[in-house]
Amino acid sequence: MSRAREWSLARQLFALQITVVTVVVAAGLGAAVAQAEHSTEDGAESRALSIAHAVAATPEVRDALSSPNPTTVLQPHAEAVRTATGTDFVVVMTTAGIRYTHPDTTQIGKKFLGHIDVALRGADFTETYTGTLGPSVRAVVPITIGGTVRGLVSVGIKRSAIDRSLQGQLPVLALAGGLALLVAAAGTWLVNRRLRRQTHDLGPRELSRMYAYYDAVLHAVHEGLLLLDAQGRVQLVNDEARRLLGLPADVVGRPVTDLPLGASLGKGEEQTDELHLTGDRVLVVNQRAAGGGSVVTLRDHTDLQALTGELDSVRGFAESLRSAAHEAANRLHTVVSLIGLGRVADAVEFATGELALSQQLADRVVEAVEEPVLVALLLGKVAQASERGVELVLDPESAVPSGIADPRDLVTIVGNLIDNAVDAAVAAPPPRRVEVAAWVAEEELVLEVADSGTGLDAEQVEQAFARGWSTKTDERLIGRGLGLALVGQAVHRHGGTIDVTGDAGAVFTVRLPMRARVTTP
To answer: Measuring CA to CA, which residue among 460, 452, 412 is closest to residue 429?
Structure first.
């Protein structure tokens, strides 16, 4: 394995960026040199052309062409112009290309080396050509008198002179390129330094492996996970959180206040194992600050809460049986003592009276309620209420057909309403009484629970079904204020409604539509 592959991602990017910057600067420097060369050559052509035009328009030159010996006039003039302008040659010639002037006097009278056809047609031009002085950039301009070309002027600058001018610019270009490379390298180093901090100097394979592990863990955990930024927008959500909250695919980037539980989560306050209700779930929520935002975890507590409710019911039944066992023992001792005293008739009357009373209550409940789970719940609640000094009464006109709703939801609704009613009755002066009624009206099952408590004011009625609301003043936190919220959740799940009145004792009326009926085998 090569050493380069062991470099961190930041180092690899730094090396790559330096390479790219060097190539770009080198390419830019090359382009600048080429541009400078082109500009220098264009400048030389323009300068030669301007000087040639000036010589061709000079009266002294035009007059000399008509003299018997033009060279005697033109040679000194041409050399003076060449010296003054810094060009390498100024040649005046005939239309046949025979030189009148030249820096090398031995070349006077000889034929000009270069093209003159365009100038003979009355137009000027420039070209690069190798003559007696070597390669040069030259301009050729016609001398026109009376509309006729009477001679030609050529002004040239040798390539070596142009190259020397270009070489004088190279140090400046090289310095500019070096400064550009230095600035780019410094910027790249600063970016690399920040990148190293953000990636913890990890290599690409390490980052890729970490991402794979992170993604696998994120989607494998059985807890819902939400990551929120400092503005309360969702930045990350896993599959379980989508399922628990019923989130859409485009949830990332949306404010958390748009989501279920958003009113609570949007406050940004830390939460530890708090119970919250959505439309059909009971969720345990934890929220912690992290990295300028917050992390929210969600656990599904729905089934556990249902089982807890059933366990509470079973525990209540067990307590009722225990109490009943004590009562039965007391009654049995009483009956035995009466028989021992020879009062058999009184013993029979006492025993049968107690049995008739219990059987009458059981018969009334069984006759009114066809749902066996609800029957068991009501009988258990009667015993529990009796132990706490509260009379629980079932309206004799009550009738609950079987299969009207999920039995577990009925236990949640009726059980929690009775528990709250008994608590309210216990907290009020005697007589303490709870009345339960149930009937079917207009394709709806109506459940009504009334207590002899102090009732609820308008504000309490409005808050009664909010999670965490309770009229109880003890310091227990677990489950407190959740019963009525669970009732509201179950009723909402069945598409029903709840009405609460609280003038003289609270009356809770639940209506469940018949279309939610569940057929039992």
So the answer is: 452
